Amino acid sequence: MDLIELTRRLCDLSGPSGHEGHVARAVIGHARTLGARPEVDPLGNVAVVVPGTGRGPALLLSAHMDEVGFVVRRIEPSGFLRVERVGGADLRTLPAQPVWVHTSDGDLLPGHFGTKTGHMAGGSDADRTRVVPYDELYVDIGAADEATVRGLGITEGNAVGWAVATRTYDTPTGRFIVGKSFDDRAGCALQLLLLEHLRAHPPAGDVILLFSVQEEVGVWGAEAAAPRWLSRYPSTDPEGRPAVVALALDQTAVGDIPDVRGGLLRLGGGPAIKLLDHWLIPQAAVVRGLEQAAGRAGVRVQREVLRSIGTDGGPLSRASGPVATGVLSIPSRYSHSPAEMVSESDLRGCLQLLAAFVEGLPEMDLRPWGPL
Predict the structure, then answer these.
(1) Which residue of 76, 255, 305, 353 is most buried, as measured by CB atoms within 10 A?
(2) 290-332 pLDDT per residue, tens
(3) Count of CB atoms within 10 A of residue 326's CB?
(4) Residue 123's Cα: distance from chain center in Å?
(5) What does the pLDDT look like over 116-167, one tens digit per residue?
């Protein structure tokens, strides 16, 4: 399937942290069409293993299925829903945004965040200028009372997620894609297309594709799942080289917009190789391996230093003992909002780089300090 169409299909699904079922079913269904046999653990993580020919280190790739969102905190007698935030949704973007409300049966009901109409707000009304805290906002599903809401299968703890459709902007400088949850459904789409590539070009070592849950609330999914997979491999081979390598594939924020000064990254500048974030300093040899793979594939890359972000790479690096870990980032504007924006060229560059990295793994010296 085309990368953009697959990304669109995954991003349009609703799956806030802890409620990733719609996304997991789509991932599993697509993997099965490629002849894979996905496994689901008790937390909801999905994993697909591509057996290697036995010549190289194993590789664990992780992209998360969840998105920032909300859950129902309280149902008002008037039928409006008060919500609790799940992950770091940008509060400035909430009023008047459409949402899906998950029912207890797994159905989706339309609604939207209510907002005080300007016709009823006085000229000095603070709501005209302030960011309204999410605990003051409410979701309107058109129900007249609490009993109607509960009769629709909505109760406390049910998920609420943005309901915007993915769209594309075709410009003289390239194609850009706008919507919700590119963080990290774009990464999930890349992993599924890498799976398709690896079915035709078997890797030297095993490749484990992990589609994790609950990244946005503390990387819990990857932290729980990674030891299960990585413990199957020794930490090093007989020559002291890592027998397993881990890569997180996630979104990162760019600084190429008018209200940001001094940002290192820009949209359309190529995939970003992470050098530092809140939870991880990637292993230098893995960084070199990614840069070498980019060179072989002819992919332009950016170098990312961003302390205010974290990914599955943190728990991967210490799962079942120390693991040589890196992070490949998809540049994005307007993260954690219903209007995230990514570049088609960056996405395709990520896929080309990943394929080249897997192909080159057997020849890489990923020892932290090289031969001693």
Answers:
(1) 353
(2) 999 999 999 999 999 998 889 999 999 998 788 999 999 999 9
(3) 26
(4) 41
(5) 776 566 555 666 677 888 788 999 999 999 999 999 999 999 999 999 999 9
Classify domain 69-162 at the CATH class level. mainly beta
Tens digit of each residue's pLDDT (9 = 90 or more) over 342-366? 999 999 999 999 999 999 999 998 8
Rg for the chain (alpha carbons), in Å?
A: 21
What is the Cα 55 distance to its own chain's centre? 30
CA–CA gap between residue 106 and residue 104 (Å, rounded): 5
Residue intervals of the chain classified under CATH 2.40.30.40 are 69-162
Q: What DSSP assignment string belongs to 234-284?
A: -SB-TTS-BSEEEEEEEEEE---STT--S-S--TTS--EEEEE-SS----H
Q: How many CB atoms lie within 10 A of CB 146?
A: 17
Q: Which of 67, 76, 136, 215 is catalytic?
A: 215
304 is catalytic: no
Contacts from 37-41 at CB under 8 Å and sequence distance 24+? 41/224, 41/225, 41/228
Q: Are 12 and 100 spatial neighbours (Cβ–Cβ below 8 Å)?
A: no
Q: Which CA distances in Å does 154 have to 13, 150, 157?
A: 19, 5, 9
- Let me know if domain 3-67+180-363 sits in CATH 1.10.10.10: no
Across the chain, what does the average pLDDT equal?
A: 93
Q: Which of 10, 47, 369, 49 is nearest to 202 (CA)?
A: 49
